[in-house]
Amino acid sequence: MTATPPETTFTDWLRERSEPDWTSVVEHPFTDALFDGSMPDEYMSSYLVQDYQFVDDFLALLGAAVAKADRYDSRLALAGSIGVVTSEENTYFQRSFDALGIVESDRVDPELDPATEAFRDLMRDTKDNGGYAEILAVLTVAEWTYLEWAQRAPAKPESFVHAEWIDLHANPDFESWVTWLRSELDRVGADLDERERARCLRLFQQATKCEVDFFHAHWD
């Protein structure tokens, strides 16, 4: 495997080797429909119901990152992100479920799509078996792809269900969080050997493919 050129950050190197899936996530037709208000309620409903099933596994992955981080400042930054997921984002889901008329059983125990199961399996396996850098790789994909697609929004759509989902992923605090994740992965990546870098790349690519498949699953 070719070493990272000195002028390229580790996260840039990972992203470049995750094309064309990376661009497929960031420029997916699903996001364009969010932007222009043409998203059918049935598509948004199925998407949010399935996305909500990631919350518990995502929190567990963040917890594993806190446990495996190599320094105190990193643990603080990661712990702070947990509060966002359990407050602002969770509130958005509940309000959106109410607005879309989603019944309680679909909120808490829906039938899972294959794309949802695959991403949950990846997060669980990485939590249980991955090191700090590998956990960061999966977290970075999940957050950085969403920042990039949300930043493409030309204007706020009328529906709060659409507008606030974009706002949750295109605001200064979230951008700072993604910037920190990238810098943290760049930092720990500098000390990895070639085999460890290869594992991070495999997980980064796998997570990116999961993101593509998840959008595909909720778009006709």
Automatic annotation (TrEMBL):
<keyword id="KW-0784">Thiamine biosynthesis</keyword>
<dbReference type="InterPro" id="IPR026285">
    <property type="entry name" value="TenA_E"/>
</dbReference>
<comment type="function">
    <text>Catalyzes an amino-pyrimidine hydrolysis reaction at the C5' of the pyrimidine moiety of thiamine compounds, a reaction that is part of a thiamine salvage pathway. Thus, catalyzes the conversion of 4-amino-5-aminomethyl-2-methylpyrimidine to 4-amino-5-hydroxymethyl-2-methylpyrimidine (HMP).</text>
</comment>
<dbReference type="InterPro" id="IPR016084">
    <property type="entry name" value="Haem_Oase-like_multi-hlx"/>
</dbReference>
<keyword id="KW-0378">Hydrolase</keyword>
<protein>
    <recommendedName>
        <fullName>Aminopyrimidine aminohydrolase</fullName>
        <ecNumber>3.5.99.2</ecNumber>
    </recommendedName>
</protein>
<feature type="binding site">
    <location>
        <position position="89"/>
    </location>
    <ligand>
        <name>substrate</name>
    </ligand>
</feature>
<dbReference type="GO" id="GO:0009228">
    <property type="term" value="P:thiamine biosynthetic process"/>
</dbReference>
<dbReference type="InterPro" id="IPR004305">
    <property type="entry name" value="Thiaminase-2/PQQC"/>
</dbReference>
<feature type="domain" description="Thiaminase-2/PQQC">
    <location>
        <begin position="18"/>
        <end position="219"/>
    </location>
</feature>
<dbReference type="InterPro" id="IPR050967">
    <property type="entry name" value="Thiamine_Salvage_TenA"/>
</dbReference>
<dbReference type="Pfam" id="PF03070">
    <property type="entry name" value="TENA_THI-4"/>
</dbReference>
<comment type="pathway">
    <text>Cofactor biosynthesis; thiamine diphosphate biosynthesis.</text>
</comment>
<comment type="similarity">
    <text>Belongs to the TenA family.</text>
</comment>
<dbReference type="GO" id="GO:0050334">
    <property type="term" value="F:thiaminase activity"/>
</dbReference>
<feature type="active site" description="Proton donor">
    <location>
        <position position="211"/>
    </location>
</feature>
<dbReference type="GO" id="GO:0009229">
    <property type="term" value="P:thiamine diphosphate biosynthetic process"/>
</dbReference>
<dbReference type="GO" id="GO:0005829">
    <property type="term" value="C:cytosol"/>
</dbReference>
<feature type="binding site">
    <location>
        <position position="51"/>
    </location>
    <ligand>
        <name>substrate</name>
    </ligand>
</feature>
<feature type="binding site">
    <location>
        <position position="143"/>
    </location>
    <ligand>
        <name>substrate</name>
    </ligand>
</feature>
